[in-house]
Amino acid sequence: MKYFxxxxxxxxxxxxxxxxxxxxxxxxxxxGPYVGGLFQIGQASSSGASSPGPAWLGSLDLGVGLKRDTxxxxxxxxELGKGSLSFENKDKNIDATVSLDLSAVAKAxxxxxxxxxxxxxxxxxxxxxxxxFKGAHDTGLVTLVGWDAVFPATDTIDVSAGFxxxxxxxxxxxxxxxxxxxNVPTLALGARVRL
Length: 195
Hints:
Layout: H1 2-22, E1 32-46, E2 50-67, E3 72-89, E4 94-115, E5 118-133, E6 136-152, E7 157-170, E8 180-194
Antiparallel strand pairs: 1-2, 1-8, 2-3, 3-4, 4-5, 5-6, 6-7, 7-8
């Protein structure tokens, strides 16, 4: 019986050592460049007397993740997108649909571990937008505050889900001579490939 315990104990130690040797490293906070896509849907409203309407934005997301340690990261990037903002302007008695022809937003984010190799990333951004309404065009300022949960799907692909609040400053004569602020809260889904 004594020899049986020694053999079972030895096998147990060997299988434990083998399992440890084959297990993946705990740290999956991998830095480096990435390219991906985002789709955001929400609602837009303008300053003044307006009712919100649907909004959407599709974006190419380019960036780099900078690993700080196992639990933290910095993300820097740019989001290039286009979309549409709809709302009812009660002051002008019109249903407005503003086409967001191009949006370029520089973003910076701080990521922290959510456990199981996922990260929560708080982002801020600023950029410009080219928009059109009834044949008129304008370029304005875009600001962004958002949060995303980033999950590794494979060794090189991440998926994300989150929300953001965008503010756009644009001026269209039909919607107000002094310029209008558009507020766009959205939910976002995305995927990206780490290069």
